[in-house]
């Protein structure tokens, strides 16, 4: 193999899965050299993950697909070698940490790959120790991987990749399933790998704010899977920002803020990529319009209480999960519960929606105590959407799925006629853009459609309160944003919305109120702007400021700006 | 109990005294296996009772037991056998044993000593089978069994290690099923009692569980492929599970004692 070959080369790569009609990706070419970190971006469904699978030959060797163009790794064409051979050149880290673990201890897990390569025991152990030390898990080598946190498991997956001793490392959405602490830990490790320059790294990631510091070049695919832009990070993200935004590609929060400021008539020499850059640019501007102080976006004009929680304590298997939580959620508020993993967020929302019956007298939804009411009465007061929408599907068509809640009620109390059900379901189908799918099987919908259907089923019985447990988990920013925009619409039309979400910038953009949980206790509850700008409070909860708030705290020359947390609060037009 | 069945659980506190832990898993299976088969066909009480006691003594002597496990073996297992003996006796045809001692009578129902002895024989067989299985079950881990199968019986490692990876699915599916049941309950499917409604409810769990399972299995398979699983005909074995002289001695001794027990039990009238 000639020495001039880059570590990784893609040439006019097109992949079509057997059951599909179009190529995704559709004509992508780029090179990655050792020591380089290349970030692949693109809207949902453009074929980013398929591209990743093509890099070590899983496409087309393990998955039924037609591939044209070629990929070479260290000069080897992926079509000419089996995956097991290619795995000595390309190591992979996937999104779901649980789906990458096969053995019973951390050490065995890292040894698994080198053992498959039939290396001598001494070398297996040497590689494994080296890899575990690199990710900071050597001290935990005898633990069962199950006891690691999500971030810990993902660092283990990276160690497993390092132990393969490959020149190329591919990471497909490595932090999509992690909480903020896990994301920070994983990027600390990836930062070390990038700094060492030992690997050609291909990174697929939608959390640009976490990744931006270590990326050298960016490759952007458009919605049809074709190569749209490619080049150095700043040139692409700042230089083609408008174009990328139009493609539906997510940008760093600081860049989005910069775009909005430009539209608002504020002159910026270039677009910022990080919170610090944004702060410096704003500090360099002599005068900025005064911003109004944060006001809660509450539409709760009436002062009615939708959900009241009083001294709620939940104990499960002798462990206290919630500790004396009290709060009142106003009718029409958009409340988000935040906190590190294990803080009790899910338990709290499940208790206040009656999914797990809370102790009697601790929760009231309207005039109902979920501890003493049956499922049907509860469904008229509160709808609950689970993390995985598939879990709650019961019927064989989208129409029946929506009608289910109404039909169940009819069984106990005579009420709605078939015609009335038809009408109400039709309204719901239209509201969530599912009209053309009314006879489709719920499991055959796309991810976003499934999510919308699950929200529809929770609302069909007319519940004024909607509770969602981590509805954006494992989704990219585009899907997450789409869902939150939908919830925002429901909120505007008067529904009280309560969610658990990890992405604090999304929280900042949409929530009117935020509850901060830490170790089973409610640390704070108040207007979103006040809480998300409180660095000390967030750090106590094991979180950190969302990117825009981080930038604005650095804006010392314009005091009225230093408390802003939402892009929507930046000036939109020349004042 | 879940800890005892965890294929990965390491046993803290295992010392040289706990000789069962130091034997090859295959030896611990090969020793009791012929007698487990034999017990399927015996009808008396003495033989299963002898094997039950033998197995319990062996486990107590050679396995590392927590106080709870010891209690379960010595008090729980006999209690279960006792309860089962009565329940099986209730199923026995009373006309076949009405010449034996009448123990008690409730209304028209008569409980004869003969019926209880038949029930006791069946319960002892089940107890003995369980105790014999626990000799290996309590003293080996899943990975060790897989390694022994691959190293001594030359089972292809692709099958052995895939089975081991599948163990990890169990807790995952339990978690997933919990989520599905919760979601279905909230949607209001609980509206019915009785076996038919229960069956329908369980059928409703199957589709989401299967969809999740297939997707998970696919991802695990891709992750294993990416780490060169199946690259060569063999893979490095870091842990050797040798078949030593002591394993042969264990099997031979076990068979001798077992044969002696059978002969002795036959002497009991």
Task: Give an overview of the whole structure.
The complex is a heterodimer of chains A (575) and B (269). Chain A has 575 residues and is α/β, with parallel strands linked by helices. Chain A folds into three domains: 1-89 and 166-222, Rossmann fold, CATH 3.40.50; 103-165, no CATH class; 305-544, P-loop containing nucleotide triphosphate hydrolases (Rossmann fold, 3-Layer(aba) Sandwich), CATH 3.40.50. In chain A, helix 4 (106-116) crosses helix 5 (121-135). Chain A: Residues 8-249, 307-544 form the ABC transporter domain. Chain A: It comes from Mycetocola zhadangensis. Chain A: InterPro entries: AAA+_ATPase, ABC_transporter-like_ATP-bd, ABC_transporter-like_CS, ABC_transpr_CbiO/EcfA_su, ECF_ABC_transporter_ATP-bd, P-loop_NTPase. Chain A: Keywords: ATP-binding, Nucleotide-binding, Transport.
Strand content of chain A: 15-25%
Number of domains of chain B: 2
Helix segment count of chain A?
22
Uncertain segments of chain A are none
| Series of H and E elements of chain B | HHHHHEEHHHHHH
Q: What's the total count of β strands of chain B?
A: 2
Under CATH, the topology of the largest domain in chain A is which? Rossmann fold
Percent in helix of chain A: 25-40%
What's the gyration radius of chain A in Å? Answer: 25 Å
For the termini of chain B, the CA-CA separation is 38 Å
- The general outline of chain A is globular
What number of structural domains do the residues of chain A give? 3
Proportion in β-strands of chain B: under 5%
**CATH homologous superfamily grouping of the largest domain in chain A:** P-loop containing nucleotide triphosphate hydrolases
Mean pLDDT of chain B: 89
The most extensive interface, with participating residues per chain, is:
A-B, 66 and 50 residues
Keywords (chain A): ATP-binding, Nucleotide-binding, Transport
InterPro entries (chain A): AAA+_ATPase, ABC_transporter-like_ATP-bd, ABC_transporter-like_CS, ABC_transpr_CbiO/EcfA_su, ECF_ABC_transporter_ATP-bd, P-loop_NTPase
Protein name (chain A): ABC transporter ATP-binding protein
GO molecular function, one term (chain A): ATPase-coupled transmembrane transporter activity
């Amino acid at each position: 193999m000639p020495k001039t070959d880059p570590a990784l080369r893609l040439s006019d790569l097109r992949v079509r899965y057997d059951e599909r009609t179009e190529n995704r990706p559709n004509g992508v070419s780029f090179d990655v050299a050792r020591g380089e970190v290349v970030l692949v971006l693109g809207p949902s469904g453009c074929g980013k993950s398929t591209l990743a699978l093509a890099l070590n030959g899983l496409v087309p060797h393990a998955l039924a697909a037609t591939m044209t163009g070629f990929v070479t790794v260290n000069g080897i064409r992926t079509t000419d070698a089996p995956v097991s051979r290619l795995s000595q050149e390309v190591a992979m880290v996937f999104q779901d940490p649980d789906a990458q673990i096969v053995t019973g201890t951390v050490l065995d897990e890292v040894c698994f790959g080198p053992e498959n390569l039939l290396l001598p025991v001494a070398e297996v152990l040497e590689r494994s120790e080296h890899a575990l030390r690199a990710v900071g898990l050597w001290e935990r080598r005898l633990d069962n991987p199950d006891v690691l946190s999500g971030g810990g498991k993902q660092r283990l997956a990276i160690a497993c990749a390092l132990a393969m001793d490959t020149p190329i490392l591919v990471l497909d959405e490595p932090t999509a399933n992690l909480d903020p602490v896990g994301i920070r830990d994983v990027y600390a490790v990836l930062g070390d790998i990038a700094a060492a320059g030992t690997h050609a790294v291909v990174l697929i990631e939608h959390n640009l704010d976490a990744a931006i510091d270590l990326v050298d070049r960016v490759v952007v695919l458009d919605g049809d899977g074709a190569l749209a832009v490619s080049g150095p990070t700043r040139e692409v993200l700042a230089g083609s920002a408008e174009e990328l935004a139009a493609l539906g590609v997510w940008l760093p929060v600081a860049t989005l803020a910069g775009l909005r400021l430009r539209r608002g008539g504020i002159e910026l020499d270039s677009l910022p990529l990080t919170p610090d850059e944004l702060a410096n640019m704003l500090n360099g501007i002599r005068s900025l319009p005064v911003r109004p102080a944060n006001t809660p976006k509450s539409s709760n004009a009436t002062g009615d209480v939708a959900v009241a929680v009083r001294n709620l304590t939940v104990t499960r298997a002798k462990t206290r999960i919630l500790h004396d939580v009290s709060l009142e959620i106003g009718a029409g508020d958009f409340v988000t519960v935040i906190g590190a993993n294990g803080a009790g967020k899910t338990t709290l929302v499940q208790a206040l929606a009656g999914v797990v019956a809370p102790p009697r007298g601790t929760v009231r939804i309207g005039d109902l105590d979920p501890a003493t009411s049956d499922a049907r009465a509860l469904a008229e007061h509160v709808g609950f959407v689970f993390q995985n929408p598939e879990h709650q599907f019961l019927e064989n068509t989208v129409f029946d799925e929506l009608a289910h809640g109404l039909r169940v009620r009819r069984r106990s109390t005579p009420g709605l006629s078939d015609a009335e059900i038809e009408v109400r379901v039709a309204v719901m189908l239209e509201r969530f853009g599912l009209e053309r799918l009314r006879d489709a099987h719920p499991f055959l919908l796309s991810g976003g459609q499934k999510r919308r259907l699950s929200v529809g089923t929770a609302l069909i019985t007319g519940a004024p309160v909607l509770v969602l447990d981590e509805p954006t988990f494992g989704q990219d920013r585009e899907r997450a944003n789409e869902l939150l925009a939908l919830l925002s619409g429901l909120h505007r039309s008067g529904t009280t919305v309560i969610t658990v979400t990890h992405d604090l910038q999304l929280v900042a953009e949409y929530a009117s109120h935020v509850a901060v949980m830490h170790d089973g206790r409610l640390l704070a509850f108040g207007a979103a702007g006040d809480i998300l700008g409180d660095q000390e409070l967030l750090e106590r909860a094991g979180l950190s400021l969302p990117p825009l708030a981080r930038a604005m705290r650095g804006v010392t020359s314009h005091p009225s700006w230093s408390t802003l947390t939402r892009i929507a609060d930046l000036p939109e037009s020349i004042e | 109990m879940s800890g005892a069945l965890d294929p990965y659980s390491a046993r803290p506190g295992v010392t040289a005294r706990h000789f069962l832990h130091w034997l090859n898993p295959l030896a611990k299976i090969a020793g009791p296996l012929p007698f487990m088969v034999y017990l399927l066909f015996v009808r008396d009480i003495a033989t299963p009772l002898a094997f039950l006691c033998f197995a319990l003594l062996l486990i107590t002597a050679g396995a590392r037991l927590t106080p709870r496990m010891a209690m379960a073996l010595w008090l729980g297992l006999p209690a279960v056998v006792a309860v089962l003996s009565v329940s099986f006796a209730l199923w026995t045809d009373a006309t076949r044993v009405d010449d034996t001692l009448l123990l008690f009578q409730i209304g028209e129902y008569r409980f004869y000593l003969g019926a209880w002895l038949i029930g006791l024989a069946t319960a002892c067989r089940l107890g003995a089978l369980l105790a014999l299985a626990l000799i290996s079950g309590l003293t080996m881990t899943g990975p060790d069994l897989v390694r022994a199968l691959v190293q001594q019986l030359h089972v292809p490692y692709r099958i052995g290690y895939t089975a081991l990876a599948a163990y990890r699915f169990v807790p995952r599916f339990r978690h997933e099923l919990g989520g599905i049941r919760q979601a279905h309950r909230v949607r209001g499917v609980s509206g019915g009692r009785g076996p038919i409604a229960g069956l329908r409810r369980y059928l409703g769990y199957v589709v989401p569980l299967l969809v999740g399972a297939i997707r998970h299995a696919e991802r695990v398979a891709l992750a294993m492929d990416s780490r060169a699983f199946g690259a060569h005909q063999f893979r490095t074995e870091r842990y050797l599970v040798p078949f030593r002289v002591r394993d042969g001695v264990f099997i031979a001794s076990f068979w001798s004692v077992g044969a002696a027990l059978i002969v002795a039990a036959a002497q009991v009238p």
